Structures are given as C-alpha cells and as structure tokens.
C-alpha cells in the first residue's frame, strides 16, 4: 500500500515535509516524480503540504542543477493551482526560498527573476483577497531584504502597481496598490520613486472618489517626502499636503497632523517657517477634536524640526546621546549673544568632541543671531497686517494701502479667530454688534510722514501731518468708546493709543534737527506702530505695543491697564502713563524668542491650560511634558525663560504620569540648560521628584548618575544624605527599584571621593547585599567590588582594609548560608576585576575563602568551587604570586572534586571556556 500525505494526520507540520521522498521503493517512483505526483494530487491537503514544504524541497534538490530546474518548473505549475489556500501557502514560502537561494546558488538573481518574481507580481492581481495579502507581504519582505533586482522593480513591480492604482481601476485594488507604493518608497532608490511612483502618488492624493486612498496617502506622506528629498517635496508634495490638510474628511486632517514632523523634517527652514507653520496652526484650530488632539501631540515634535545645533550649542552624537559643543574662542562664556560664527567655524564646532567637565560652560551663543537672519517675514495665521511687505518694502505707505483689505477683515474677525481656536465656539461680537468703523483713511494719514520723505517735504509739513493724524485717530477712539467692554476693541484701542502717543511726541520735535534724521526717525516710529516686531521701535511706545507674535488675551484685564481713552481724546499725556516698576505685557514679553514662529510656542505653552484637557485631550499635559526637552533644545538655553513656567507647572501636575515623564528626561534637560540654569531651576524640581511616588522616583533614579555628574561638586555632595532614601520604597515588593539603585551607585562612585564613599555609600551597599531578592543581592555584590576598587585605585588602602574586615564579619561569618555564598562570589569578582593588590587579597581574603570548603551547605561549596577552579587557578593575576597559597588553593580544589555533592564535584572539575563571573541562578534547594 502506498504511503502518502493522507496517512500523516493533522500533526504533520512538525515533520520534515520531504521525509516521504526518502522512503525507498515508495510507488516505485523517483523522488522528483513522487514530488510531482503529490504536488498535483487531487487531495487539496497534499498540495498544501507540498507548497508549505517547498523550502525543504529546494534544500534537498538544489545541489543538482538539473533537479533544481525541475523543482522550479513544478513550483511554477503549482502557482497556477485553483485552490486559494495552496496559492497562499506557496506565496508565504517565496521569501525564505529566495533568501536560501541567494546564499546557496551563484545564479540566484537570474533564477529568482525568471521563475519566482513573476509569481509574486501575478498574485498582486489575484481574485482572492487572502492570496493578494500574502503576495503584498512577500513583496515588501523581498524589497526590505534587497532581493529584487532594480530591473525587476522598474519593469515588473512598478508597472503593475501603476495599473492597479489607475483612476479606472477597481477600488479595492487601488487602495492596496497605494499601500504598497507607500511602503516600497523607502526601499527603492530615489530616482525610481521620483520618476515612476511620485506622479501617481500626487494624483492619488487628490482622489475625489475614495477617501480611503487619500487617507493612506496622508498617513504615509512623511515617508514619501523622505524618499524623494527636499527639492521634490517642496515642488510636488507640499501643495498636495496643503490640500490634504484642508480635506473635508476629518480623518485625513488627523493623519496629516500625525505625520507633520516627518514632512517638516524634509523641507527647508524657509518653507518650514513660512508655509508649514501657519498650516499647522490651522490644524490646531480645527473644529474636529480628534484633529486638534493629533495636532497637539505632534506640536512638540514639529517644533523640534526648527532645531539648529549651531544655535543651541548642542548636538546629537552617533550613539544618540546629547553632547555639548566645546567652547569657541569667540565665546564670552555667558549666555549673551556674540557675533555669528563663520561657516568654517560652524563645521569645526560641529565635528568637535565633548571634552569639557560637568561644570564647564559650553558655547551656545555664537550662532544665536543666525536664526533671525534666515527669515524676516514670519507668517502668522492671525496677523493684523502683512508683516512681510511692511518690513521688506521701502514705501510703507504703499504697503499699507495694499494691506488695507486684510486689516479690515481682521478688524471684524481676526482676533475672534484666535478666540475660536481656544475652543470658544460663539462670540457675540461677531453676530449682533455693529461692525467697527473703517480706519483705513486714518492709517493712510498716519503714513504721510513717509510720503513727505519720498517727496523731500520740510519738517513743518510733517508736523502738520502729525496733527491731522492725531485728530483723525481721536475721532476713531471716540467711536470705539461705546464698545470698550469688548476685549477686541480694547486691543485696537491699545494700538491706536500708541500711534497717538507717537504722533504727539513728533509734534514737539526740534525744527532745527536735520531733515533726513527727522524723516528716518519718523519712519521708524511708524513701522513700530504698524509692525510691533520692528527691531527699532520708538522708546516711548515700546512698552505699549504688542510683542512680536503676541496673541492678545481677551480675558486679560491688563490689556489697556494704563490707557485712559477720555484723556487720550482730550490730548492729555497722562493717558499714556506707564509704571516704571511694572511695565505692561512684561509677562508676555518673557515668552518671546526668534527661533520658531511665536504662534507655535504660544500654542505649546497653552498645553498646560486645564481647558485644553477638557476640550482637546485629557493627557495633553503628558504630551507636553514628553516633548519638552526637544522644544528646549530647539529654543536653546538662552530662551529657557520661555519654558520655565511651563516646566514648573508640569512638575507640579496632579497626574503622576506627567511628573514621571519629566523625571525620566530631567537629565537630558540638564545637559541642554547647562550647570547654572540646572542648579537654579532644575535642582528644586529634582529634589521634589526624589520625594514623590515610586513611579516618579524611578525616573530620576534610572538617570541619577547622568544628572548628578552635571552638578558642581559642592552641590552634588548634598545628595549623599539623600541616596539612602532610595532604599525605602512605597512597596517592598518593588525589588527592581532597589536593583536600579545598585546599578546607579556603581556609576556614581566615580563622582565622590573615597571618604564620602566609605561614610555614606558603603552602608547602602551592605544593606542591598542583604536584600530578600536574589537579583538585588547579586548586583549589590558587584557594587561592593566596585567600592573596593574605588578605594585601592585612589590609594585609600586603609579604607579598603577596613571594608574587607567588615565584609569578612558580615558575610564570611554570617549565620545564613546566603551570606557565606555571597562572600565566595565577592572574592571571585575581586580576582576577576583585579581591583586590589594580589598580596592584599592573599593576606586578607584568601584564608577566609578557603575555609568555606568545610561549609555544611552545598550551595556555598558550589560557588567556592566555581571561584577557585574557574577564576583563581585560571587567572594570571593570582597565579603570578608563586607562594604556598597557590598550592593551598589546588589542594582545596582536589578536596572539592571529591565532594559528596555531585554539583560541587562537577564545578571543581570542569575547566571554564571563558573567564567570566556568572551571576545566574546558583541557589539550589536544600
């Protein structure tokens, strides 16, 4: 009776699939004939097993070229099987077969391309969904492994994908095709993506029929941008990205928000600042909560794409660690800005290694002005006028006329759009109040001084114009009085008041001042009124104007704190009095910077607002805390004042997850800020974390060494008293906490002198050595050895001898066998690490160690046997002594080899393969 797969049963998966081919005389057929018989059997199960075992088949027949070709032909015929499960099994085997053939067949590329690759491509259009899925997964694996030739990608894979994603293609195939296109973009060369796939991807981004296609494009947009590079991204992809960000389906906008950082990373700083920043603000203000949630989660990562290592004074090493750039000879050693470094100096600084100590001051300011030179026009979604044209034009009056329509629109809805983005869905000012008067004429009159400069007018004509402008502004202020309860009107009154003040000051200027000087000063004053971010704003109006990028807070009662409209209308200077000791908007000015667009920073700082948690995301504060180091790195330590209050708010958040997030990253933030700011602002928060819940404390504990090494020696020494508090935990079962403490103490030893180690850290080490959990004890024994090494490396031999005596008393003469076993391990580690002079070891530790040979507990003798046989007798450090103690060790080993316990005798006999200290489970059950 012939034996086939029918006789194997359901558990044949664990069998060697080709075992039936080795049965002599079965069916009187040759192995290849038998393979073909079962490959095309009427029994579906037989064909499935053959398809599943193809890798074994190739292994058996690949040594012969003729048999190999026959097997290939059988595979091709099997790929045409009518049963979908057979085709699925076959497709799942193609990647491992391709890998095997690549390694064993010199002609693999030709064979794979000729026989197997057509099967993969054909299955992409298979009518069965399961087969297509298997084909798509196999294709991705083959591309990842680099097994598909470039010619096959261009001539076989890309054409079929373009056909499947064509407008007239079936919807299901189209979605699958765009998925594959997005996945393979990062696996093939740039030219292939840009020439063959990019045009179709851009077309699919605008597919108006299937939102599923657009969603796949949006979700993978960052990968495509990264694949084609900056030029193609800005030319072809950014316009499509704008369309997707304004798609009517909220899922599309959410996907765009999630990949925003990847898109931004590929673009130039100019595009990132002028185009992507306003676009991102629109996503943050999206009416859909899920879109806003995704945008806020991506806000910090997006801000981090503005980071410039040259301006931050920091850079990321190849191993991913954050490092400080060594001080430049042009650095002043402070946080104040100096001249920008040249490009040659920047390259030199970027390539420099970290050579400074923990207390050194790094060069962080020599590139500070570079960010301001990149882009003079920062695009704001809610800007009151076109700042770009105002700052770049020589004819301010003409620009004001061109910007008048924008001003009028903003007067009615501009500020309210900011309010709506903060979740105010209704504002009565938009609906029932009369529209604000048109002040375009007044602003035109305000520019007459510039026009007189262009026409070479006299100073007296400018004075007259100032008077006219003042009277017109007063009329506008009079018309706004009835609406003073509205915060939007208050904001406009603020700007007009500053303009009135400027006009009044100009009217009392000395007529004998040279005409060109007077006109220049007037131009600067006008620019300060119309463009609050102007760097040369008039001193008299500086405290009244809104700060650059400042968002007016309608709920703030201090918007027009010292502006009396009645007195302004009467021409009284008292209306503009400013308190010298408390200038308005000082709090807002403290958040100003020029590294990133100010609206992005304002939105990031608002993530700690409790209202955001209610209307956007309950964990928005956690996302803010998670990305704060990246934002701080982007802004640089010179702008830490922008984040300080936010960081303190997060550090006191009621949610322990928020505080835990900060605790895990506080050491990185300390590197970013430097020693001075760390001591002033981070140390108090660090101290608070030390007394927090264990879930928070573990964050600072895991990076305790990284944080302490950044502090000055005197400040660092204060923590010696607090380290022992880590031994106590909220839950005694949390042994990993104590394990982490022991690991950190091994690193921390280098930060303190031997006396401090002996007085403070020694007690902690001995306490951890007596822990109930074995894992904690084993790592603590290593800590003990590291302490001994610390003493002898610093010539503190007396402290080392005192500690040795304490170890003998504590462990060698311990009443519990665990303590005596620990002593054997410590001695083994001492010899392994060579942490003390060999004569000290022989004199003070070896006699006590050898005495353990008569210990009644086998567990102790087992570890003694390992210490003697695998370490002492194999270590040149010990054998070089050449004294009777070596003979004593050998005699002890012989005694242990004859021990009644089999494990003791085994470890005393076996020779080690390598000299390592094993801390595996050595404790046997008695």
Can you give a write-up of this model?
With 926 residues, the chain is mainly α. The protein has 49 helices and two strands. α11 runs parallel beside α14, α36 packs parallel to α39 and α41 packs antiparallel against α42. Among the domains are: 148 residues, Leucine-rich Repeat Variant (Alpha Horseshoe); 206 residues, no CATH class; 117 residues; 113 residues, no CATH class. It is 62% helix and 1% strand. The longest helix has 35 residues. The chain has a two-stranded antiparallel ribbon with strand order 1-2.
Put the structure in a nutshell.
The protein has 49 helices and two strands.
Map the helices and strands.
Blueprint: H1 31-39, H2 44-52, H3 54-61, H4 65-78, H5 84-104, H6 108-123, H7 129-144, H8 150-164, H9 171-184, H10 190-205, H11 211-219, H12 221-228, H13 230-245, H14 250-258, H15 260-266, H16 269-284, H17 289-304, H18 309-312, E1 314-316, E2 322-324, H19 343-351, H20 370-374, H21 387-392, H22 396-402, H23 404-421, H24 440-446, H25 448-454, H26 459-480, H27 487-507, H28 515-530, H29 565-569, H30 586-589, H31 598-605, H32 610-615, H33 620-635, H34 644-651, H35 656-690, H36 694-702, H37 704-708, H38 713-717, H39 735-748, H40 754-769, H41 774-793, H42 797-812, H43 817-833, H44 838-844, H45 846-850, H46 858-872, H47 876-879, H48 884-897, H49 902-909
Antiparallel strand pairs: 1-2
Helix pairs in contact: 2-5, 3-4, 3-5, 5-6, 5-7, 6-8, 7-9, 8-9, 9-11, 10-13, 11-14, 12-13, 12-15, 14-17, 15-17, 17-31, 17-33, 24-26, 25-28, 26-27, 27-28, 33-35, 34-35, 35-36, 36-39, 39-41, 40-41, 41-42, 41-43, 42-43, 43-46, 46-48, 46-49, 48-49
């Amino acid at each position: 009776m012939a034996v086939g797969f029918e006789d194997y049963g359901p558990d044949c998966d664990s069998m060697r699939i080709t075992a039936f081919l080795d049965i002599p005389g079965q069916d009187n057929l040759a192995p290849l004939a038998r393979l073909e018989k079962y490959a095309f059997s009427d029994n579906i199960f037989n064909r499935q097993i053959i398809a599943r075992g193809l890798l074994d088949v190739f292994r058996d027949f690949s040594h012969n070229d003729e048999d190999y070709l026959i097997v290939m032909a059988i595979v091709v015929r099997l790929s045409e099987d009518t049963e979908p499960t057979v085709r699925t099994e076959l497709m799942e085997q193609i990647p491992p077969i391709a890998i095997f053939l690549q390694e064993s067949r010199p002609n693999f590329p030709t064979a794979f391309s000729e026989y197997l690759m057509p099967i993969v491509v054909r299955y992409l259009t298979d009518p069965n969904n399961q087969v297509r899925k298997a084909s798509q997964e196999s294709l991705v694996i083959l591309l990842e492994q680099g097994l598909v030739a470039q010619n096959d990608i261009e001539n076989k894979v890309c054409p079929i994908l373009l056909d499947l994603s064509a407008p007239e293609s079936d919807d299901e195939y189209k979605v699958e095709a765009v998925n594959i296109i997005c996945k393979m973009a990062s696996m093939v060369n740039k030219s292939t993506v840009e020439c063959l796939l990019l045009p179709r991807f851009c077309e699919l981004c605008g597919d108006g029929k299937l939102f599923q296609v657009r969603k796949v494009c949006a979700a993978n947009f960052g990968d495509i941008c990264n694949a084609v590079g900056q030029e193609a991204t800005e030319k072809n992809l950014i316009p499509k990205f704008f369309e997707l960000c304004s798609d009517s389906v909220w899922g599309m906008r959410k996907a765009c928000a999630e990949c925003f950082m990847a898109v931004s990373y590929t673009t130039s700083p100019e595009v990132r600042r002028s185009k992507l920043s306003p676009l991102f603000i629109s996503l943050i203000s999206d009416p859909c909560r899920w879109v806003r949630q995704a945008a806020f989660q991506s806000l910090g990562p997006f801000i981090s794409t503005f980071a410039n290592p040259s301006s931050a004074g920091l850079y990321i090493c190849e191993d991913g660690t954050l490092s400080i750039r060594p001080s430049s000879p042009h650095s002043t050693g402070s946080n104040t800005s100096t001249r920008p470094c040249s490009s040659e100096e920047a390259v030199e600084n970027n390539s420099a290694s970290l050579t400074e100590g923990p207390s050194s001051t790094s060069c962080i300011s020599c590139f500070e002005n570079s960010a301001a030179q990149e882009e003079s026009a920062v695009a704001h979604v809610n800007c009151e006028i076109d700042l770009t044209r105002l700052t770049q034009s020589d004819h301010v009056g003409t620009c004001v006329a061109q910007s008048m329509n924008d001003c009028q629109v903003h007067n009615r809805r501009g500020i309210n759009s900011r309010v709506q983005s903060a979740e105010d869905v209704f504002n009565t000012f938009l609906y029932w109040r009369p529209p604000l008067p048109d002040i375009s004429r007044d602003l035109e009159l305000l520019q007459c001084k510039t026009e007189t400069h262009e026409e070479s007018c006299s100073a007296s004509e400018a004075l007259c114009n100032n008077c006219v402008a003042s009277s017109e502004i007063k009329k506008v202020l009079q018309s706004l009085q009835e609406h003073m309860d509205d915060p939007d009107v208050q904001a406009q009154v603020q700007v007009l008041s500053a303009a009135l003040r400027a006009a009044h000051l100009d009217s009392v200027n000395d007529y004998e001042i040279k005409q060109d000087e007077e006109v220049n000063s007037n131009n600067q004053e006008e620019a300060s009124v119309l463009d609050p971010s102007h760097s040369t704003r008039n001193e008299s109006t500086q405290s009244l104007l809104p700060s650059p990028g400042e968002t007016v807070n309608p709920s703030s009662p201090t918007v027009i704190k010292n502006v009396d409209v009645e007195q302004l209308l009467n021409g009284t200077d008292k209306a503009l009095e400013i308190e010298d000791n408390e200038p308005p908007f000082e709090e807002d000015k403290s958040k100003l910077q020029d590294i990133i667009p100010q609206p992005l920073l304002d939105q990031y700082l608002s993530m700690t607002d409790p209202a955001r948690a209610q209307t956007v995301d309950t964990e928005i504060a956690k996302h803010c805390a998670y990305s704060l180091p990246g934002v701080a790195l982007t802004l640089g330590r010179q702008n830490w004042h922008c984040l300080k209050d936010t960081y303190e708010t997060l550090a006191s958040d009621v949610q322990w997850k928020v505080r835990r997030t900060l605790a895990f990253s506080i050491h990185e933030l300390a590197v970013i800020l430097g020693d001075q700011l760390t001591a002033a602002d981070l140390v108090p928060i660090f101290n608070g974390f030390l007394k927090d819940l264990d879930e928070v404390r573990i964050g600072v504990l895991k990076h305790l060494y990284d944080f302490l090494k950044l502090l000055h020696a005197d400040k660092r020494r204060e923590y010696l008293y607090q380290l022992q508090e880590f031994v106590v935990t909220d839950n005694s079962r949390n042994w990993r906490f104590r394990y982490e403490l022991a690991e950190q103490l091994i690193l921390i030893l280098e930060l303190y002198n031997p006396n401090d180690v002996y007085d403070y850290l020694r007690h902690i080490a001995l306490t951890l050595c007596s822990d109930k959990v074995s894992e904690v004890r084993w790592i603590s024994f290593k800590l003990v050895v590291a302490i001994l090494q610390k003493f002898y490396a610093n010539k503190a031999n007396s402290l080392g001898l005192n500690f040795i005596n304490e170890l003998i008393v504590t462990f060698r003469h311990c009443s519990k066998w665990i303590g005596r076993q620990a002593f054997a391990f410590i001695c083994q580690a001492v010899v392994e690490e060579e942490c003390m002079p060999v004569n000290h070891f022989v004199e003070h530790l070896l006699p006590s160690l050898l005495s353990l040979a008569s210990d009644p507990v086998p567990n102790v003798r087992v570890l003694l046997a390992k210490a003697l046989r695998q370490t002492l007798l194999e270590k040149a450090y010990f054998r070089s002594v050449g004294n009777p103690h070596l003979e004593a060790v050998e005699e002890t080993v012989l005694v242990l080899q004859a021990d009644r316990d089999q494990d003791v005798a085994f470890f005393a006999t076996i020779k080690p393969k390598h000299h390592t200290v094993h801390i595996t489970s050595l404790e046997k059950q008695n």
